[in-house]
Design brief:
By secondary structure, the protein is an alpha/beta fold. The protein has nine helices and ten strands. The strands form three sheets. It has a six-stranded mixed β-sheet, sandwiched between helices. Strand 4 (123-128) and strand 5 (132-139) form a beta hairpin. 30% of the residues are buried.
């Protein structure tokens, strides 16, 4: 990418991010998923065998003779992390066949980070491709979100065309993220590991975290028509070379069918490990917002 292209991209992304700061995809009040040792009252429940007698409500016991346990909110906040795929197939380039993926990814990352910030949750970010490029520990505050997003856009200015190594990215997640954190895995899931049975790859992280896969698809992979064949000179996004593609209407339909089959395969694998997922396929802010907000609203109603 030339410097002029990068400067235009950076300006457009920064303008985009500034529009997303007041968006919140999480429905209603943000409630902690934790109960445990702490000082803030959470709820009371009847005493049951196995409960710690030190948690008995002595006032209720003395006044009414009722054995009740006082539950208190844990002294920790829900941390929110975004694991962002920056591999070749997810990077912006004028000659890419699917150029919208990077924009959709960045919109999703910004919506997730700013929504968590609006909900007073510490946020963190990891960007990865063949290796982990950078990791930001979870911290509170708008400025921290701004810094992470500015750094993410800066990576587009580096000519690095690498495939994704999801195994290494998940290994970093297991090492760096606290248990029970909310982690969004934002990717097109084109890693070779997702061609077959990938349940074993995701299961450890699914058990340790509240893991939400966010599947990024280019609009051309979902819908679109060609009236005439096109000859496209494009760059191999993960190898750096250039090639010429003769794209016909029939070939485009085959690509869309293949993409739909891959999404169905991913959905089956996610269900195997008990993961809810959301798919994004439009660079429209409103479309991404509605998809993510709808996902969490449906999740809230079923939990």
């Amino acid at each position: 990418m030339g410097r002029a292209d990068y400067d235009r991209l950076r300006r457009s992304r920064m303008q985009l991010f500034s529009r997303l700061k007041l968006r919140n995809i999480f429905p209603g009040e943000w409630e902690s998923i934790y109960t445990g040792d702490g000082i803030e009252f959470a709820a009371v429940k009847p005493f049951e065998p196995g409960d710690d007698v030190r948690d008995l409500d002595l006032h209720a016991l003395a006044q009414r003779g009722e054995e009740e346990i006082v539950q208190r909110a844990a002294g920790r906040e829900l941390k929110v992390f975004v694991w962002a795929d920056c591999s070749g197939s997810m990077r912006w380039a004028p000659e890419a066949l699917f150029p919208a993926k990077a924009e959709i990814r960045d919109i999703a990352v910004a919506l997730l980070l700013y929504s968590a910030w609006n909900a007073y949750s510490p946020t963190g970010l990891c960007a990865f491709a063949q290796h982990v490029w950078g990791f930001f520990p979870a911290r509170p505050g708008e400025r921290h979100c701004d810094e992470m997003l500015a750094w993410l856009v800066e990576q587009e200015g580096h000519e690095r065309h690498q495939p994704a190594d999801m195994a290494e990215a998940l290994s970093c997640m297991m090492q760096r993220v606290a248990p029970q954190s909310l982690v969004f895995l934002v990717s097109d899931f084109q890693d070779a590991a997702f061609a077959g049975d990938f349940a074993a790859l995701l299961r450890p992280a699914a058990r340790r975290f509240d893991l939400v896969p966010v599947v990024i698809r280019d609009p051309l992979e979902v819908a679109g028509m060609l009236r005439h064949a096109l000859r496209i000179v494009m760059r191999d996004s993960e190898g750096g070379g250039r090639s010429e593609v003769y794209l016909t209407p029939t070939r485009l339909r085959q690509m869309q069918e293949s993409s739909a089959q891959h999404l169905a395969h991913l959905e089956h694998g996610f269900r195997q490990v008990g993961l809810d997922h959301v798919a994004l396929s439009s660079p429209s802010v409103e479309a991404c917002y509605e998809a993510l907000a709808g996902f969490f609203e449906a999740r809230r109603r079923t939990r």
